[in-house]
Design brief:
The complex is a heterodimer. Chain A has helices spanning about 5-30, 35-55, 60-80, 85-105, 130-135, 140-160, 160-170, 170-175, 180-210, 220-230, 235-255, 265-285; strands spanning about 120, 135-140. Chain A is an all-alpha fold. In chain A, helix 10 (about 220-230) crosses helix 11 and helix 11 (about 235-255) runs antiparallel to helix 12. Chain B folds into two domains: about 5-155 and about 280-310, Response regulator (Rossmann fold); about 160-270 and about 315-380, 3-Layer(aba) Sandwich (Rossmann fold). Classes of the chains: A mainly alpha, B alpha/beta. The interface between A and B is large, with 67 and 59 residues.
Chain lengths: ~300, ~375
């Protein structure tokens, strides 16, 4: 067993979840829970794959993936913010709608070949022992996600835009008093979140597996929602959570290969059990850090 | 607000929990006890399968999956060509539920008197429909149960898998082979065993490491597994999945060799492709349809459990990748000739399991029924079988 292998495995398997977590984090910071994350991710995976097939350019594909995620998130935003629908019901509906829609639209793309993202070894840096193979031999979208974490942290906590966004999730009346529209800020946040989540799906289909098959996210979007709570709505901790989830996936495979007599079916549960454990351990503490606006989710008035 | 946090945590964790179960149950497990169900109550006036206007095929997945379904689809095209008077009805992505019954009923309304339910899990729905329509003939793929008007057929795919194991054992530099499999059903375990025995026959120290993904098609999990195996020094990957593309492409990108399953996919791996075990249903389907429309099903070799072998051409090995050297090809061809002639039988005893316990006694001759109930890994396989 090798630490570097599990570490790189964690990053490979965790990156798509990281994007989805960051996306959900933005939406929740503005006071909207989007359980449709799974659907946005699937939409992103298919959108990105389809455009990569057509254009041969995975970056265009990733852009299309982001837009697909955004469009699905817009449905949720409209229902919750404008129509004041229950956010949980709306999110779940968007999720199942996207599962069906992508299965239908994606049928022609099953096993099409693409020239997707390839791993890029960064010169010099990839030669550093331990850190090199761990951090500097990934695909473009993975590097981008690593840069996104500090960027998002900076945007949220060091800029005026971040203050307004966070205030929308905490005390929308204050935002309103200062002359901003909480409604449109929420729209923006949910769609930006959908965009990032869509790129998470794009990473899965165009960078990691180079494949589209129906329902290929297999619950990763929902795990992302759970990880946002674990992350206490903070980008760096979302990264930790996503890699923990990915690491558990890598670890269970390595354990299988050692030939220990543990049922693989038990091992399949590991990533989810670790997510549950993480929630169990931190959820109580995390409550105080939750954006106050999220409470509206539970009385059916999810928006400004 | 505190209450809200608790609720949200609860909801997220219940959903995560839900997916835990999805992750654990996305498999279609098999029962291995052979049994024959009761005959239909009323006798049909004409022989089952005769007088139809159409032949129906139902597939569990997409017809172009580089896999199991694609192989069956190609077979259905052969039927279309051979019987211009019969319309071929096809239905893809038919789940292994009561939905399958609905699809078959629809096909019967459209004039089908012969139906091919091609997935293991289509068997029980097919048995139900067969009971209601004694005049319709069913050919089920891969099952172990039969009825008056339902026969099952399959191929001894482990034979070409054994041959592919020989090539893999010769081509591997590390002697460490990897097999990415779906779920622990006998067919899967049997293939892993055949692959390892083939490899060991040319390289006594060859091992085959097995990883279960728990699903017939989960590309992310397949990519995880392939990457993880390559990280551990495995240099030849094979698999038992319905969608096979991700494993082959991941191996190719990481510079490992791959042995395919279900389909010729060398285009996905121009550098690392070795060979693949494939199904050739075309001739068999055509012959089965012919037997059916002529009213000769009763008493034919398809009336029960039919197993097509390498010698019948029902299962085959594809051509080799360009980098496979001639001596390896010759070695495989020699064993192939021996398998076809019946002089080579890898599963003649003694066969020992991972712990050295004898599973097939020395001198015992190959029994297909026994192989189809395989519940162990042979010596040299690394991995454990979920109980």
């Amino acid at each position: 067993m090798n630490g570097i292998d599990i570490g790189t495995g964690a990053i490979r398997a965790g990156t798509s979840v990281l994007y989805a977590s960051l996306g959900e984090l933005i939406a929740e910071r503005a006071g909207v829970v989007n359980l449709g994350t799974e659907g946005c991710m699937l939409g992103g995976a298919l959108g990105a794959f389809a455009v990569t097939v057509w254009s041969g350019n995975p970056w265009l594909g990733a852009l299309a993936g982001g837009i697909s995620g955004s469009v699905l998130a817009l449905i949720h935003a409209f229902l919750v913010i404008t129509r004041k629908a229950n956010a949980l019901a709306s999110g779940l509906t968007v999720m199942f709608f996207a599962i069906g829609l992508t299965s239908f639209l994606g049928r022609g793309f099953v096993n099409k070949q693409i020239h997707g993202f390839e791993p890029i070894s960064i010169p010099l840096l990839s030669k550093i022992p331990f850190l090199g193979p761990l951090l500097f031999q990934h695909d473009g979208l993975t590097y981008l996600s690593m840069l996104l974490v500090p960027t998002l942290w900076f945007l949220l906590f060091k800029t005026r835009l971040g203050v307004i966004l966070r205030a929308t999730g905490e005390r929308e009346e204050v935002v309103y008093t200062y002359g901003f529209s909480p409604k449109w800020i929420r729209y923006g946040a949910v769609m930006a979140g959908g965009f990032l989540t869509g790129i998470g799906g794009a990473q899965l289909s165009t960078a990691y597996t180079h494949t589209w098959v129906e329902n290929m996210t297999q619950g990763k979007g929902i795990v992302a929602v759970a990880l946002v709570i674990f992350a206490a709505w903070k980008p760096a901790r979302a990264m930790l959570g996503a890699y923990l989830f990915g690491g558990a996936q890598a670890l269970q495979l390595v354990v299988q290969q050692q030939g220990y007599e543990i049922s693989p079916f038990l091992l399949f549960m590991t990533p989810y059990v670790i997510t549950l454990l993480a929630l169990f351990l931190v959820a109580r503490k995390q409550r105080s850090q939750m954006p106050e606006g999220l409470s509206k989710v539970f009385n059916g008035a999810g928006g400004g | 607000m505190r209450k809200v946090g608790r609720k949200l945590a609860l909801i997220s964790s219940s959903l995560a929990f839900m997916f835990t179960f999805v992750a654990c149950s996305s498999s279609t497990t098999s029962t291995t006890s052979p049994e024959t169900t009761a005959a239909p109550s009323q006798a049909a006036s004409a022989a089952a399968g005769t007088g139809g206007k159409a032949v129906g095929f139902i597939f569990v997945g997409a017809k172009d999956d580089y896999g199991y379904n694609q192989a069956a689809y190609i077979g259905s095209q052969a039927v279309e060509k051979a019987f211009p008077n019969l319309k071929v009805l096809r239905s893809e992505n038919v789940p292994e539920t009561a939905e399958a019954e609905r699809v078959m009923e629809e096909m019967i309304r459209n004039g089908a008197k012969i139906i091919f339910p091609t997935s293991y899990g289509h068997l029980d729905p097919a048995l139900n429909v067969a009971k209601r329509h004694p005049d319709v003939l069913f050919y089920h793929q891969g099952g172990l149960k039969t009825a008056e008007n339902l026969g099952t057929y399959f191929g001894t795919i482990w034979e070409p898998v054994y041959l592919a194991g020989i090539a893999a054992g010769k081509m591997s530099k590390s002697g460490k082979l990897g097999y990415i499999v779906s779920v622990p059903i006998p067919q899967v375990l049997l293939n892993v065993n055949a692959f390892e025995m083939g490899a060991k026959s040319v390289n006594p120290s060859a091992t085959t490491t097995v990883v279960f993904t728990g699903s017939w098609c989960d590309p992310a999990q397949q990519a995880n597994a392939a990457n993880s195996m390559i990280d551990q020094g495995i240099d030849v990957l094979s698999q038992h999945q319905d969608c096979t593309k991700t494993v082959i492409e991941t191996a190719e990108r990481r510079g490992a060799l791959s042995v395919g399953y279900h389909a010729e996919a060398s285009v996905l791996a121009p550098k690392g492709w070795i060979t693949s075990s494939i199904w050739n249903w075309s001739d068999l389907y055509v012959d089965m349809v012919k037997t059916g429309v002529e009213g000769k099903f009763k008493g034919s070799k398809y009336d029960g459990k039919y197993r097509g072998q390498l010698k019948d051409n029902v299962v085959q090995l594809t051509s080799f990748g360009s980098q496979v050297p001639d001596d390896v090809k010759k070695l495989v061809d020699k064993s192939k000739a021996e398998l076809v002639a019946g002089t080579l039988n890898p599963f003649n005893g003694p066969v020992k399991d991972q712990k050295g316990a004898v599973k097939i006694e020395a001198g015992a001759k190959l029994e297909l029924d026994k192989l189809e109930a395989t519940d162990y890994f042979v010596e040299g396989v690394i991995g454990s079988i979920p109980k």
